[in-house]
Amino acid sequence: MRQLTMKPKSKQSGKYHDARQEKLNLQVYRIDGDLVELLFSPREIDLRVGETLTLQERDTGRSVIAQVISFRSASYPSLVQEQMLNLVGPEPLDAPLLEAIGYRLFAQAGGNGRSAELGNIKVALAKIRKTVPVASNLWEGWDGWIPAREADIFRTPDEEVFANATRDLGHPLSLGWTLGGHTFQVEGQDLEKVNVITGVKGSGKSHLAKVILLQLIEQGAPCMVFDINREYIHLPKAEIDPQSGEIIRRGIVHLEAGGNFRLGVRQFGLAPLMTLLQRFGLPEVSALHLENRLARLWEEAEAMERAGRSVPYLGLDQLIQMAEENEFGGGSSATVINHAIRSRLDALKNTHIFARSTSEAASLGKAYRQVRAGGALVIDMSSLSNLAREGFVQAIIELVKDLCLWEIEHDAHRFPFIFFEEAHLYVSRRSIDYIVTRARHLGITSFFVTNMIHGLDEAVLRQADNLFLLRIPFEDDVRHVSRGAATDYETMAAFVRRLRQRHALVIGNVTTQYPLIFAVNPLEGVNTAGETRYFFRNELGLSRPE
Questions:
Q1: How many CA atoms lie within 13 A of 536 on its CB side?
Q2: Which of 23, 85, 123, 208 is the most exposed place for a label (fewest CB within 10 A)?
Q3: What would the pLDDT profile of 221-259 be if each residue is shown by its tens digit?
Q4: Residue 449 backbone phi and psi in degrees, to 5
């Protein structure tokens, strides 16, 4: 893994406005609306896209906060002529006597050298974000005021940016480093509810998700991950005392859907079961007969449990036997109805997500207790088909809802943080709408992680509390994702189309809607790689370039 050359700086003592002492040699060329054009020499100043600057008016002391979004070369009237002269070379001087002995003289190019320096001048385009009152470091919403051209310009210290754009309620999550090299932390509470992590393939979105996941675990948060590509199973495992059940070390608990994690039919839930059967093609009439009969059977089972009697196990094998005996529906069409039900139950059996006995049925509640004080249930769905995944995830969401209701009832509030890898492949739009609306009231926090940017539903983008964006080079994708951003499209396009590897733009509650670029923690010593398999093996032992 390539290591970042950027290292965190130690926190500076004293007030952060002291860092403004170094005035930059920048000139305000013009201000048009909220766009500032700044002239500078790259030989003197190294500016970067995403950097925050303070423009302070000398006479009044008022300031605005502006953020660099792009660069271009400066131009002046004689520039083209000078460039053309440089192309044709210096003009020879008329010196016949010297030419007679084989020498030629040329006029020295470049004059006094100032024209060459002028040709290197650049223009930094910056967006005005905030205004700062006199003798204050507290940012306010920009009210349209602009400074005079003779403004003093400083780099805004990271400490001042943090003080105005982030909060600290005692739950810091360290995600990486700022462009200035300081540790970048966000407040855990501001990360709650709906988050989107997206970028093109290979930009590092899953790596960022793992960084956030491990930080949540470190802070004692219970998490779940729906993993379809075995991306998370190699993260540090939780160590649990088999005798007492006490957590020795926080980490992940690997649950394999269809392997060590299967659900009973009742546990799966009637609504998810019927949804899954209908996705497998169960006709509406057959579905109606099956649903009615199962509802009566489960009412009888609940009555037996209330009376303290043991309930016989009802699994797919028992339901298949009932279908063979034509117990679902009657009349002349009974055979057709029961045959349709049996064929779909056979298909469900082949998914291996249903337990064959009481002893084989897993308990999500029991597994959740293993990570309730900090950890993650990584639910490996790589062996399931897309159809099976959809019903399985819907069932898990219903079980999570019950867990949250228990937490609310007991005033414990240990609500889960759920990561959905490529959710559009296995979560229906109806379930997504439920997650981003109803789940807010249940305490669930969700992370939608995907490189299929157009697969992100607009409802998710508009409801998102935070957007974590990695490199997105395509204009259509930028326009789509910008619908949910609390900033202008021009900023989004300028930032996300040019982000470097393992760098991300974050905007949302964690930054009070101020767009910030940061380098993602490389997680040295942690295996964060997914299981990508190759036919052509690496025979030379070289690492892949990033």
A1: 1
A2: 23
A3: 999 999 999 999 999 999 988 777 788 899 999 999 999
A4: -110, 120
Which CA distances in Å does 510 have to 168, 212, 498? 10, 13, 22
Contacts 24+ apart (CB under 8 A), 27-34: 27/149, 28/55, 28/147, 28/148, 28/149, 28/150, 28/151, 28/153, 29/123, 31/128, 31/146, 34/127, 34/128, 34/142
d(CA 297, CA 205): 46
The pLDDT value recorded for residue 3 is: 37
Confidence band for 53, pLDDT divided at 50, 70 and 90: very high
d(CA 31, CA 207): 39
- What is the H or E stretch that residue 210 is in? helix 205-218
| Distance of alpha carbon 155 from alpha carbon 163, whole angstroms | 15
Element counts in the chain: helices (H) and strands (E) = 16, 20
List the one residue out of 279, 272, 310 whose CA is nearest residue 294.
272
Tell me the residue type at 485: A
Task: Count CB-CB contacts under 10 A for residue 219.
Answer: 15
- Structural tokens at position 79: 């520039």
Pairing mode of beta strands 52-57, 151-155: antiparallel
**Residue 242 token pair:** 């088999």
Q: pTM of the predicted model, to two decimals?
A: 0.86
Q: How much is the CA Rg of the chain, to the nearest whole Å?
A: 31
